[in-house]
Design a protein that fits this description.
The structure is a homodimer of 371-residue chains. The first copy, chain A, contains eleven helices and 14 strands. By secondary structure, chain A is of the alpha/beta class. Chain A folds into two domains: 208 residues, 3-Layer(aba) Sandwich (Rossmann fold); 129 residues, 3-Layer(aba) Sandwich (Rossmann fold). Chain A has a six-stranded parallel beta sheet. In chain A, β12 and β13 form a beta hairpin. In chain A, α2 packs parallel to α11 and α7 packs across α8. The longest helix of chain A has 23 residues. Chain A is globular and about 55 Å long. Chains A and B meet through α6, α8 and β9 of A and α6, α8 and β8 of B.
């Protein structure tokens, strides 16, 4: 969750005029392309819900409107079950709060989460503030270090080292992106694996990939996706699953998690030919590419379950803010074909911080051998 | 490569009578099942080429004959290119030998590979002997420790620790399986990552899974599979690839490697419904399940490239040994549909040791900063 911000050029296209049946990930119709207004650019650097996946090779973010039914023949008008991530996240926060209270009563330990923030990006500051608020709400102590933009890598490493040694800290997050003079890999690798509540350490990812091994922590966003499936009693074993996007923080670990639960998994990405054809075979789709409304109704097998990780701003003159948030999946079309779907906002979004709190509790329990 | 031995109950069925179009991984017809003769059981413990994948949940090994064309309509009688692993492995050994000689001349360093063998399993002894022979042939020094069956975990860990510290050793292998009193995970984790030429360390696997990270070593058998594709100029980028089997040592890392090369990858396993249907979409199939002749001609898209990791003994009264070796793929059928195929034996098999030699050279070069 510390990794959700990368700037991307944004392009605007009305997908109701593009043929969805021939769409290819990188080849959306560009006939209606126009520069995105700078106000929206500004938005992308300040809105807490903005969610773009770094490391994907999609060269740009496409802003796509899908207008209800013009491009897609929707035969099933019944609406899908709405997977209410906001409610589930609230349930989880309450469960975490109960456990923290029990832990405090029994052994006098309160879990602690440390966040290191370098520089003064507004979006990063907002993320950190939200994490702090969430910690407060469940009774996790939060510790924060703010360093100036021109800090050295060594200073950051020193703070990490202190938190690694501090027994009151059970989870450590370094808010990304870091200033360019710093080596992100060095810094992330310095967080000791027992406190890597983000679960991004390669040792964690390796254990996630290997049968018979257990990761210390599962990355929060993909963990949130699977948790939603579990809480809605959606079977995974033996199902065909397609993950769209292969980022280190969402797509790839989500695919590994689905495979651990015995799904048959395919990963669709920017180099995939015919993503629509493969996606349409899926019983479960997890999309995490940051492409507004990319997954059209025609990409979805009737009855499929759709988990939408994308949170993308699109221009909306009717909104007082001038924009609204949409997912990677064209909700209006897909919700008529799917059996269940996460809305945006209010789907996967709230789950990420809930999972961070859950991982921090898990860490404290493990360190203090409390069950 | 140290992991290729697990005993499995073997069952014998004639697949020419089962309907290939409805085959499901775990549901082969069992009407013709009979116990496998004990002589073959003996074989499985002693033959150097035997290759069964551990950790797969296939509950038994099925011995399947595919008789030429009875079950499958083969429309294209043209034969596929035979991917000659024996020749490629020989080329690689020669290249490794040249590099080792150059290294010795320039900096006086000779790469060293240490193997630890516990107990007296005949098959393990054969593997170790073959590795030693291969090392000798390219000029790698090999070191061997043989410990009795009743050794303690601590003794093994001590030897690993010594090899970790020994500057003349650049690669360390622990021959598996280990006696039951030992914890395999503890022992494998003790090999320092810089000398883990098998590439099985979870940190290595994590780096393999993550974009922007580089594993220290790629596991030898999957590396061998990809090397064969490269040496035969078979494009991977943008292709549909299906990996059959999800073992830690072959299937899973092979899928990660294909994805690193921008293939669109699906993993088929024992819980997959309709494996045939998914497999038939693939441009590239890598099969690593240890199920003789499981992949029939009807599973293969015309023109697909087939990499067969399975090496399975099947009864053969006409052979002087009473058995012959077949792959997971029904060669006779599939070679008429595919554009290229690895034979068994002589395909992937010889590549594994060649990649081990290559990884050992790589390790020595890296440790001594030689390029």
């Amino acid at each position: 969750m510390a990794l959700m911000e990368t700037a991307a050029t944004m392009i605007f296209t009305d997908c109701s005029s593009s043929s969805s049946s021939t769409a290819r990930l990188l080849h959306f119709s560009s006939s209606k392309v126009q520069k995105f207004p700078s106000t929206i650019s500004h938005f992308r650097r300040s809105n807490a819900l903005q969610f773009a996946i770094p490391n994907t090779k999609f060269p740009r973010t496409i802003i796509t409107y899908c207008s209800s039914s013009s491009a897609v023949q929707v035969t099933n008008e019944a609406s899908a079950t709405i997977i209410d991530g906001k409610r589930v996240a609230k349930d989880i926060r309450e469960e975490v709060a109960v456990e923290i209270s029990r832990m405090k009563d029994k052994i006098g330990i309160v879990p602690g989460l440390a966040v290191i923030l370098v520089g003064d990006r507004k979006d990063s500051a907002t993320y950190v503030r939200n994490k702090k608020k969430a910690c407060d709400s469940v009774g996790i102590n939060s510790y924060e270090v703010r360093l100036p933009e021109d800090s050295t890598e060594e200073e950051v490493l020193n703070h990490i080292s202190n938190f690694n040694d501090d027994p009151s800290v059970h989870g450590i997050l370094v808010q990304l992106p870091l200033p360019s003079q710093m080596n992100e890999q060095n810094i992330l690798n310095a967080v000791c694996i027992e406190k890597d509540v983000d679960g991004f350490h390669p040792l964690n990812i390796g254990r996630l990939a290997m049968r018979g091994r257990e990761p210390s922590f599962v990355p929060c966003t993909p963990k949130g996706c699977i948790e939603l499936l579990h809480r809605y009693d959606i079977p995974i074993k033996g199902k065909r699953a397609v993950v769209i996007g292969r980022s280190n923080i969402v797509g790839m670990p989500a695919a590994l998690l689905l495979q651990r639960e015995d799904a048959t998994v395919s990963i669709v990405h920017s180099r995939t030919r015919n993503p629509e054809e493969i996606t349409r075979q899926a019983d479960i789709i997890i999309s995490a590419v940051g492409q507004p409304n990319m997954v059209r109704g025609s990409w979805v097998k009737p009855g499929a379950v759709l988990i939408d990780v994308g949170i993308n701003p699109v221009e909306d003159a009717e909104s007082p803010r001038g924009y609204r948030l949409v997912g990677d999946i064209c909700y209006e079309e897909a919700s008529k074909v799917a059996s269940a779907i996460t809305p945006v906002p209010g789907g996967v979004g709230p789950m990420t911080i809930a999972m961070l709190l859950s991982n921090t509790l898990l860490s404290a329990k493990r360190i203090h051998n409390f069950s």
